[in-house]
């Protein structure tokens, strides 16, 4: 998607290992979000950021941490991956103009074995 | 608490109209959104409605909002096979920077 890139697109990792997912934006938007998508649950907010070094928890933040040292990058870290964290992870950005909604990345499919 | 509900599946014939329904709980929501997700892709904003509106039309898309019943619907006229996707409604939570998403409705269009 234009202006927002997630990496990697796919990852398989072992239980207990740390994993970091990256979200990079070129829109200079203040707000960035990490969601996970699971069947029957829609999208659930993990963490979000409203500026450099300003982050807050979402509804499913346990087992995850985030960092935002630059406007353009928002990192999601699974401190010790578990099988329940197998999911598709989406990053979103927002300029906080409600009529534009949020712009989503293409997602990272993470499998924890 | 905040909760957004949608039916899981909808199947329609090509050329017919599709109506996807959503109920939400936060009566102070300022904007409500409809997103489309195609296989293997992220969510794409389709349309939105401001909470003081009852209806919004955008080409083949019509959004209806019933604030009293906290009910939102998306009507797609002349549904095409390219409309097959998962559709999510979302509400903005007043005085927060967050959206709450529904569980998504999978629309299948058959010839």
User: Which spans of chain A of ≥5 residues are poorly predicted at pLDDT below 50?
Assistant: none
Number of helices of chain B: 0
Order of helices and strands of chain A: EEEEEEEEEEE
Q: Helix/strand-derived class of chain A?
A: mainly beta
Notes on the structure:
The complex is a heterodimer of chains A (113) and B (111). Chain A is mainly beta and 113 residues long. Chain A is 0% helix and 58% strand. Chain A has no helices and eleven strands. Chain A has strands spanning 4-7, 10-13, 19-25, 31-38, 42-51, 54-57, 64-70, 73-78, 87-94, 103-104, 108-112. In chain A, the strands form two sheets. In chain A, strands 2, 4, 5, 6, 9, 10 and 11 form a seven-stranded mixed sheet that branches. In chain A, a hairpin with a 2-residue loop joins β7 (64-70) and β8. The radius of gyration of chain A is 13 Å and the shape is globular. The model of chain A has no long low-confidence stretch (mean pLDDT 92). In chain B, 0% of the residues lie in helices and 57% in strands. Chain B has no helices and eleven strands. In chain B, the strands form two sheets. In chain B, strands 2, 4, 5, 9, 10 and 11 form a six-stranded mixed sheet that branches. The radius of gyration of chain B is 13 Å and the shape is globular. Chain B starts with a strand and ends with a strand. The chains are: A mainly beta (113), B mainly beta (111). The interface between A and B is medium-sized, with 27 and 24 residues.
């Amino acid at each position: 998607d234009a202006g927002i890139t997630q990496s990697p697109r796919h990852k398989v990792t072992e239980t207990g290992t740390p994993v970091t997912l990256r979200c990079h934006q070129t829109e200079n938007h203040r707000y960035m979000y990490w969601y996970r998508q699971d069947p029957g649950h829609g999208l659930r907010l993990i963490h979000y950021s409203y500026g450099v070094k300003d982050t807050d928890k979402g509804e499913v933040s346990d087992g995850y941490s985030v960092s935002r040292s630059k406007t353009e990058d928002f990192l999601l870290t699974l401190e010790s991956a578990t099988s329940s964290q197998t999911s598709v992870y989406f990053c979103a950005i927002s300029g906080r103009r409600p009529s534009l909604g949020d712009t989503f990345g293409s997602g990272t499919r993470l499998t924890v074995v | 608490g905040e909760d957004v509900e949608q039916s899981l599946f909808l199947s329609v014939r090509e050329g017919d109209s599709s109506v996807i329904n959503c109920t939400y709980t936060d009566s102070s929501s300022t904007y409500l959104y409809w997103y489309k997700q195609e296989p293997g892709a992220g969510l794409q904003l389709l349309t939105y409605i401001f909470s003081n509106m009852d209806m919004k039309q955008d080409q083949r898309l019509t959004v209806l909002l019933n604030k009293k019943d906290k009910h939102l619907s998306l009507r797609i006229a002349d549904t095409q096979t390219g409309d097959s996707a998962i559709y999510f409604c979302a509400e903005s939570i007043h005085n927060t920077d967050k959206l709450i998403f529904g569980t998504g409705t999978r629309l299948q269009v058959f010839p």
